[in-house]
Amino acid sequence: MTDRPDIAFKILSRADWRAALAEGRYDGSAADRADGYIHLSAADQLEATAAKHYAGQADLMLVEVDLTALGDALIWEPSRGGALFPHIYGPLPVAATRAARALSVTADGLMILDETA
């Protein structure tokens, strides 16, 4: 039994999300591919991830991922500050996503979601 969440989030460019929808899968960003897995963030990790990696960026998407659909490809591993983060070893199937919303992150790291997207 685990108290880990059933959902996590991936921030990616709108262009990468469009490509993922067309392909049926997301193979990760350049950083993901270099690390050998797709980085996700649990809800309580999301704001820090946005501020650290996406400050000042617009034209992003916040994608909600159903972790239960990933099976053995999902591994929780220590990362920032020793906290466990969800990582996907392999592609993220679009079928494992629940929702996607437009996102921008201010220069000081504040996330702004477009509720209409």
Automatic annotation (TrEMBL):
Pfam families: DUF952. Coiled coil: none annotated. It comes from the Bacteria. PANTHER family: BLR1139 PROTEIN, DUF952 DOMAIN-CONTAINING PROTEIN. This is DUF952 domain-containing protein.
